[in-house]
Amino acid sequence: MKTMLTIISNALCRMTGRNAGAQTVSEGARVVVSRSFADFTPQATFNIKKCDLHRLEDGPPLAAELTRDQGLHYYRTMQTVRRMELKADQLYKQKIIRGFCHLYDGQEACAAGIEAAINPTDHLITAYRAHGYTYTRGVAIKEILAELTGRKGGVAKGKGGSMHMYAPHFYGGNGIVGAQVPLGAGIALACQYQGNNQLCVTLYGDGAANQGQLFESFNMAALWKLPCIFICENNKYGMGTSVERASASTDYYKRGDFIPGIRVDGMDVLCVREATKFAADHCRAGKGPIIMELQTYRYHGHSMSDPGVSYRTRDEIQEVRTKSDPISLLKERMLSNNMASVEEFKEIDVDIRKQVEEAAQFATSDPEPPLDDLCNHIFYNNPPLEVRGTNPWSKLKSVS
Amino acid sequence: MAASLRCFLRSGKNAVSALGQREFHRSAPAAAQVTVRDALNQAMDEELERDERVFLMGEEVAQYDGAYKVSRGLWKKYGDKRIIDTPISEMGFAGIAVGAAMAGLRPICEFMTFNFSMQAIDQVINSAAKTYYMSAGLQSVPIVFRGPNGASAGVAAQHSQCFAAWYAHCPGLKVVSPWNAEDAKGLLKAAIREDNPVVFLENELMYGVPFEMSDETQSKDFIIPIGKAKIERAGTHVTLVSHSRMVGLCLDAAAVLSKEGIECEVVNLRTIRPMDVESIEASVMKTNHLVTVEGGWPQFGVGAEICARIMEGPAFNYLDSPVTRVTGVDIPMPYAKILEDNSLPQIKDIIFSVKKTLNV
């Protein structure tokens, strides 16, 4: 009986493209403890929020298709970033991580959604809240955590820290607010110059949106039709300053003036994905740059030295957690459409916890970089040189 | 007469009007007279041809042929893709150039003068210079920032600052300061081929000055290694160390002093960072006296660094007197000619300082 209902519901789903049919079946289906793979809905279509448009006739579609595999992948990605950031929080409080640590939890749908819409050969650059993107761009958890703890196994061998992690086609991690935006436009220029049909995703925050160099970049990107997607991650606060107190116009998607813009629900990974796909198509068609504003939220304060409650209320944070958490949103969607089971999600959670724990173990036990690495990596492709130490008799060696 | 004509030419005063416009030439006859401007132009032309990743961007570099005509003819030859006119957005276009370098191109980013580089200095230092180190070797930045540096003539305080000391302070950068046409060509080619950020400090007053260029220097692979100084004139009594336009003044002062029996050894630094201290030390160990000459301000300057380095090394014991620094006057550059002339080292200041150092 159960099997027959499942077959009917699957058929209904395929025919109508709506999840209504699946709803009634899954209630009963959830009672069964073990499920075979074939019992799950392989694909469903979800309505997503309409994006506000600036200088655009049409925008991203109002519905997104999600396969079971995709859903589980996005879930895994977001949950990994979430757990990794929480682990970083823990390590920071234990004073094993020091200095700056800007955490990304709450904003996972942005990183996961963007990565789902671009190719690994596309390029991405962001600011200092970069751990999520470092992961989605391919760096292993343990290399990220070991960089935070300043060990030689870190992705930058401990030389960079939280804000300076790099990978192929990922340009960090940038500490100076707004400086990454002209860099991103330059990477897009290189794509155009080399004619490789690649694009650059250039991220910045609501705080950086008021930097002059952004407008210089917008001007040149539009003038030269650079394949650049400028993305403002609007998490409502630039450090401790709310958007209303910082910007005469908080319509960040319109701030590019002559550049078309889209305002996107940044808590919905599917919304982010569809908008990014739309933006990528726009760029690859040679239409020039485009701006996306992702409305998102960070649970932590600006950095680990900011409790995050002097300029916003705990109620506000709690409300976002309960009503708009990106991971919960995706999970509920998949569960209510019988695309996966609660147990399955639990298994994924357990696995991620294990991976993060192992990574943290590595990050705390790996040795610090050796002192003779101190002066290395000043210049690329250069013969070894001598570097002055703290006193005239201290002559240190530097290799490329 | 010939000597004073040479002085006149080297100092660059009204040199352009005196010599008339030179045609941009690609294949020059043997041992030709080439201006610094044309030498820079040749260097860029040859490197643009050699490597299609190389491109030039800056204000007025394309259709205007360059604010100081250094890039004359390049846009006509290479087009919009390789020679890019930018809006007046230093911070923006310097950042764009750095990003392009990170993504595989080899940009030459021109600042109309280095005074305007202050708008963009964050991109030069924090995005370009430090990145290879911060990424522990994952991300290199092969870029050249070039343009006229230091005093010009009558352009007043905001347009006359020397940035050699500012940029040479920072690890991760190479800072180059050519004097003559040979320096300009060989060092610019080296800078463009260099896989790391180079700040290339030209001098507007030198652009129109012609110099003899040997056959060897006309070769398309003529490179002057970054980090090596050159002895422009051998001497025995005192070492004069300088860079850029002041090298010419040192040679002029040396010519005058020679008549009085004082033989100066003139060292042309060519590169400010990494500085070729060994060459200075070798010279000082021979002459026992050192005078540094620069156009920039005295405090925390190139001369100050040379003093410190000499004290820390073997040459200190060979000094018969403290090192003397000849520098620009410690003031913002005034406008009126008489004031401007007295704000920078003149030949007589160098002669005076040498004699004081030698106690004669």
Automatic annotation (TrEMBL), chain A:
<keyword id="KW-0479">Metal-binding</keyword>
<keyword id="KW-0786">Thiamine pyrophosphate</keyword>
<protein>
    <recommendedName>
        <fullName>Pyruvate dehydrogenase E1 component subunit alpha</fullName>
        <ecNumber>1.2.4.1</ecNumber>
    </recommendedName>
</protein>
<keyword id="KW-0809">Transit peptide</keyword>
<comment type="function">
    <text>The pyruvate dehydrogenase complex catalyzes the overall conversion of pyruvate to acetyl-CoA and CO(2), and thereby links the glycolytic pathway to the tricarboxylic cycle.</text>
</comment>
<keyword id="KW-0313">Glucose metabolism</keyword>
<dbReference type="Pfam" id="PF00676">
    <property type="entry name" value="E1_dh"/>
</dbReference>
<dbReference type="GO" id="GO:0006086">
    <property type="term" value="P:pyruvate decarboxylation to acetyl-CoA"/>
</dbReference>
<keyword id="KW-0670">Pyruvate</keyword>
<dbReference type="GO" id="GO:0005759">
    <property type="term" value="C:mitochondrial matrix"/>
</dbReference>
<keyword id="KW-0560">Oxidoreductase</keyword>
<dbReference type="GO" id="GO:0006006">
    <property type="term" value="P:glucose metabolic process"/>
</dbReference>
<keyword id="KW-0460">Magnesium</keyword>
<keyword id="KW-0597">Phosphoprotein</keyword>
<dbReference type="InterPro" id="IPR017597">
    <property type="entry name" value="Pyrv_DH_E1_asu_subgrp-y"/>
</dbReference>
<dbReference type="InterPro" id="IPR029061">
    <property type="entry name" value="THDP-binding"/>
</dbReference>
<dbReference type="GO" id="GO:0046872">
    <property type="term" value="F:metal ion binding"/>
</dbReference>
<keyword id="KW-0496">Mitochondrion</keyword>
<dbReference type="InterPro" id="IPR050642">
    <property type="entry name" value="PDH_E1_Alpha_Subunit"/>
</dbReference>
<dbReference type="GO" id="GO:0004739">
    <property type="term" value="F:pyruvate dehydrogenase (acetyl-transferring) activity"/>
</dbReference>
<dbReference type="InterPro" id="IPR001017">
    <property type="entry name" value="DH_E1"/>
</dbReference>
<feature type="domain" description="Dehydrogenase E1 component">
    <location>
        <begin position="77"/>
        <end position="370"/>
    </location>
</feature>
Automatic annotation (TrEMBL), chain B:
<dbReference type="InterPro" id="IPR005475">
    <property type="entry name" value="Transketolase-like_Pyr-bd"/>
</dbReference>
<dbReference type="InterPro" id="IPR033248">
    <property type="entry name" value="Transketolase_C"/>
</dbReference>
<comment type="function">
    <text>The pyruvate dehydrogenase complex catalyzes the overall conversion of pyruvate to acetyl-CoA and CO2.</text>
</comment>
<keyword id="KW-0786">Thiamine pyrophosphate</keyword>
<dbReference type="GO" id="GO:0006006">
    <property type="term" value="P:glucose metabolic process"/>
</dbReference>
<protein>
    <recommendedName>
        <fullName>Pyruvate dehydrogenase E1 component subunit beta</fullName>
        <ecNumber>1.2.4.1</ecNumber>
    </recommendedName>
</protein>
<keyword id="KW-0119">Carbohydrate metabolism</keyword>
<dbReference type="Pfam" id="PF02779">
    <property type="entry name" value="Transket_pyr"/>
</dbReference>
<comment type="function">
    <text>The pyruvate dehydrogenase complex catalyzes the overall conversion of pyruvate to acetyl-CoA and CO(2), and thereby links the glycolytic pathway to the tricarboxylic cycle.</text>
</comment>
<dbReference type="GO" id="GO:0046872">
    <property type="term" value="F:metal ion binding"/>
</dbReference>
<dbReference type="InterPro" id="IPR029061">
    <property type="entry name" value="THDP-binding"/>
</dbReference>
<keyword id="KW-0313">Glucose metabolism</keyword>
<keyword id="KW-0630">Potassium</keyword>
<dbReference type="GO" id="GO:0006086">
    <property type="term" value="P:pyruvate decarboxylation to acetyl-CoA"/>
</dbReference>
<comment type="subunit">
    <text>Heterotetramer of two PDHA1 and two PDHB subunits. The heterotetramer interacts with DLAT, and is part of the multimeric pyruvate dehydrogenase complex that contains multiple copies of pyruvate dehydrogenase (E1), dihydrolipoamide acetyltransferase (DLAT, E2) and lipoamide dehydrogenase (DLD, E3). These subunits are bound to an inner core composed of about 48 DLAT and 12 PDHX molecules. Interacts with DLAT.</text>
</comment>
<dbReference type="GO" id="GO:0045254">
    <property type="term" value="C:pyruvate dehydrogenase complex"/>
</dbReference>
<keyword id="KW-0809">Transit peptide</keyword>
<dbReference type="InterPro" id="IPR009014">
    <property type="entry name" value="Transketo_C/PFOR_II"/>
</dbReference>
<dbReference type="Pfam" id="PF02780">
    <property type="entry name" value="Transketolase_C"/>
</dbReference>
<dbReference type="GO" id="GO:0005739">
    <property type="term" value="C:mitochondrion"/>
</dbReference>
<dbReference type="GO" id="GO:0004739">
    <property type="term" value="F:pyruvate dehydrogenase (acetyl-transferring) activity"/>
</dbReference>
<keyword id="KW-0496">Mitochondrion</keyword>
